[in-house]
């Protein structure tokens, strides 16, 4: 009970914290326009919708149904995603602004540019005020045709989100012909080693969990790899005290059975299941976003996502700056002293993993030093489980609010239990 009530509270805190930053929901907006249903479906399938929702200002250049049909049958989803990403401009353009472009022509950065795979000007779109009041769109690559034109405004939320319709897909051949990466061909351990996660990579190999990861890749896999610093941290648990099966669970806990890029994590409300999740044990993770920073809450500790190693549908690899300790294995540790909340991290953007000192784990007093609890058959949510979220000083065994909670949680506790229930059920 304690753990689930606390999880519920942290969940609510997440909802409240993210509410202030809540942007528009592109999926919902476009669902009011059946003529863009294909485009809308593709935004959801590729998870670009989440990316759009987590950014502002942003302009989405939608295409009417049928305009993408020459591509959808012919190219893999990863290529379609790149094409769609070219239709997401990281600036606000509405009709008046399009007709007032200074010098008559501008290059706008697109979401495709943020993938890091765009050579030269490939990640830019050229918007040019043409004669006769027309506005042309084309690839930013010099000499590209401006053969897609602005046809109409669809929806504006000044000056954060603009949805406009364009006549034709912007699909430069270099994007279409770029070799589609084969996820199963990615050498996960090589990537992890290069990203400063050698210890994690060698554990994956020695335990055989790498094979579990590899067999999951094609259906979507997201890996949260603790960097080598995380294993050396003072408060890092001694994995040699765990049984082999427990180490396997810990490693499986560091991955999700879905393609979940950072934009999707930012839009996640509540908890997500991991590869370690099975009928008997939850092994889930809470996700918390503060600005550009995303943290994962295990119920025992909190770990910040430090960098993106790979984001290539259907595989995502992130580094995290401390080990994710599942409450199922580490929940019986003594109540840890309060540590600084992860969202107070001063760096606005994720730091590179390898050389960044792990801010939270370094600054927090050791949350878990004791050996893990012996395996028990008690399901997740048993009263013996440890504190959750921000290393609260829990003195309670029933989650009845006897928790040293931050102000927001205290407030929540007194607000209304029914609100909690509503949000939890929604
Ligand atoms: C956006 O709206 C869609 C459809 O209404 C919904 O399924 C989805 O959960 C919403 N996304 C967010 C982040 O609220
Ligand atoms: C946009 O494309 C046109 C036609 O190719 C070109 O003349 C113009 O310089 C381009 N604009 C920018 C900002 O690169
Ligand atoms: C636009 O974004 C700003 C900054 O995030 C926010 O304060 C504002 O409420 C947003 N406006 C609308 C209409 O959503
Ligand atoms: C992957 O890379 C590692 C080195 O990091 C190497 O030992 C291993 O043989 C590679 N695996 C494959 C299948 O190429
Ligand atoms: C935790 O709570 C106990 C009992 O209320 C108290 O004695 C102790 O000082 C608290 N520890 C911290 C670090 O706040």
UniProtKB/TrEMBL annotation:
Residues 1-23 form the signal peptide. Residues 335-401 are annotated as: Disordered. It is found in: Cell membrane. Keywords: Cell membrane, Glycoprotein, GPI-anchor, Lipoprotein, Membrane, Proteoglycan, Repeat, Signal. Gene3D superfamilies: FAS1 domain. SUPFAM superfamilies: FAS1 domain. It comes from the Eukaryota. Transmembrane segments: none annotated. GO terms for cellular component: plasma membrane; side of membrane. Residues 23-170, 184-324 form the FAS1 domain. PROSITE patterns: FAS1. It is a lipid-anchor; GPI-anchor. Residues 352-367, 378-389 have a biased composition (Low complexity). Residues 335-351, 368-377 have a biased composition (Pro residues). It holds the Pfam family Fasciclin. Its main location: membrane. May be a cell surface adhesion protein. Belongs to the fasciclin-like AGP family. This is Fasciclin-like arabinogalactan protein 8. The gene is LOC105171539.
């Amino acid at each position: 009970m304690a753990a689930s009530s606390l999880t519920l509270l942290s969940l609510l805190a997440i909802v409240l914290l993210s509410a202030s930053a809540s942007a528009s929901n592109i999926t919902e907006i476009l669902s009011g326009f059946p003529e863009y249903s294909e485009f809308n479906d593709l935004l959801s399938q590729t998870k670009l919708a989440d990316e759009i929702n987590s950014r502002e200002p942003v302009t989405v250049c939608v295409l009417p149904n049928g305009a993408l049909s020459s591509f959808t049958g012919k190219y893999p989803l990863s290529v379609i995603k790149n094409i769609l990403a070219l239709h997401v401009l990281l600036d606000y353009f509405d009709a008046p602004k399009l007709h007032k472009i200074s010098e008559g022509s501008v290059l706008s950065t697109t979401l495709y540019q943020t993938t890091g795979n765009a050579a030269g000007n490939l990640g830019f779109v050229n918007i040019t005020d043409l004669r006769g009041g027309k506005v042309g769109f084309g690839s930013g690559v010099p000499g590209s045709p401006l053969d897609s034109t602005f046809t109409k405004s669809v929806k504006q939320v000044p000056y954060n989100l603009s949805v406009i319709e364009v006549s034709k897909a912007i699909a430069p051949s270099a994007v279409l012909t770029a070799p589609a990466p084969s996820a199963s061909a990615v050498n996960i351990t090589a990537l992890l080693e290069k990203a400063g996660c050698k210890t994690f990579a060698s554990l994956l190999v020695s335990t055989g969990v790498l094979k579990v990861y590899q067999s999951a890749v094609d259906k979507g896999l997201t890996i949260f790899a603790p960097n080598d610093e995380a294993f050396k941290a003072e408060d890092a648990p001694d994995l040699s005290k765990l049984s082999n099966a427990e180490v396997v669970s810990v490693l499986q806990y560091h991955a999700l059975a879905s393609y979940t890029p950072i934009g999707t994590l930012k839009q996640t409300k509540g908890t997500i299941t991991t590869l370690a999740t099975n009928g008997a044990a939850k092994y889930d993770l809470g996700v918390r976003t503060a600005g550009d920073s995303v943290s994962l809450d295990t119920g025992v500790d909190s770990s910040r996502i430090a960098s993106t190693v790979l984001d290539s549908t259907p595989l995502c690899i992130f580094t995290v700056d401390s080990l994710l300790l599942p409450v199922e294995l580490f929940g019986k540790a003594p109540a840890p002293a309060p540590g600084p909340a992860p969202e107070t991290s001063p760096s606005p953007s994720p730091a590179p993993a390898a050389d960044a000192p792990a801010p939270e784990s370094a600054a927090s007093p050791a949350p878990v030093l004791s050996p893990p609890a012996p395996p028990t058959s008690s399901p997740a949510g048993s009263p013996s489980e440890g504190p959750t979220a921000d290393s609260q000083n829990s003195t309670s065994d029933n989650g009845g609010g006897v928790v040293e909670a931050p102000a927001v949680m205290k407030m929540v506790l007194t607000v209304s239990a029914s609100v909690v229930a509503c949000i939890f059920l929604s």
